[in-house]
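2024-03-11 09:14:02 DEBUG pipeline.ingest accepted 1 chain
2024-03-11 09:14:02 DEBUG pipeline.ingest length=290
2024-03-11 09:14:03 DEBUG pipeline.predict start
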Amino acid sequence: MDSKLGVDPNSNATTPDHNLLSEIGLYKYSRFQSVLSTLASKPTWSLSDTASFDHLHIGGTNTLDICASKLALQSGARILDIGSGLGATGRYLATTYRVHVTGIELQQTNHRLAEMINGKNEDPLVAGLVRSVNADFLKLELAILGEMLEFDHAVSILCICHLPEDSRVPFFKQAARFVKLGGTIYIEDFFRIRDGPLDAEDAKVLREVVGTPHLPSKKEYEEQLIEAGFGKCVWEDISAHWTGLTRERADKYKALTEKSAELEFFYDVVAEKLAGGSMGGMRTVATRTM
């Protein structure tokens, strides 16, 4: 593989702020301790047992079916899930589409819970096809994963939004190192709709509540992917769809008797920012061309 796609070990790129991420309402695990307590007596768990909390992205399994369709997933394909959270993406893709999924998760708490849920899953395909690795993706080497071959596809759903601005190009270059030539990356993420920078208040709320320190434009996003070696970017603006889904999610959560105030606030902020017209939602599939 062309060495120019590698990440410079002396790069000034910074990883997401652990402290910032741990304060986000979505990652406060007190919100689902009662579910885990209820499940404790069950010897094995189904995907539906943890579905109320382990999909950290927007759209649940429908999003993952769209992902599988866009990537034209074939049984036996090898998937790299970057920012894998609690591992729901890997478990669903493995059991539904019979693919191998390696999840890379920065936060140790997420990783440990993903491993626990994987270990308790009733479907033997999960044990055979899914694994979670606790690592900083920007500093990872293929050999560390025990992998001899690059992956067929990479998937990153609402993870890249947590990256500082100076880490975005190194992140995409790193992804290109892990995906085979002609392989693809599937991304769902936030982006900036309006020209020019966000106003100070919007930027502050996105950073402190959503964990998004930089919101790129469509042009910036595509240029960074191309610079990293990904071409043939197929971009889809899903802002309107996400606006409806996040408002519905926020209202349903607000109606619950037992709920976390921090998660309720997080859901409200995401819905409001999407409805406000400055932040949008996107999905893109890009092919590694160099």
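2024-03-11 09:14:41 DEBUG pipeline.report The CA atoms of residues 45 and 121 lie 5 Å apart.
2024-03-11 09:14:41 DEBUG pipeline.predict end
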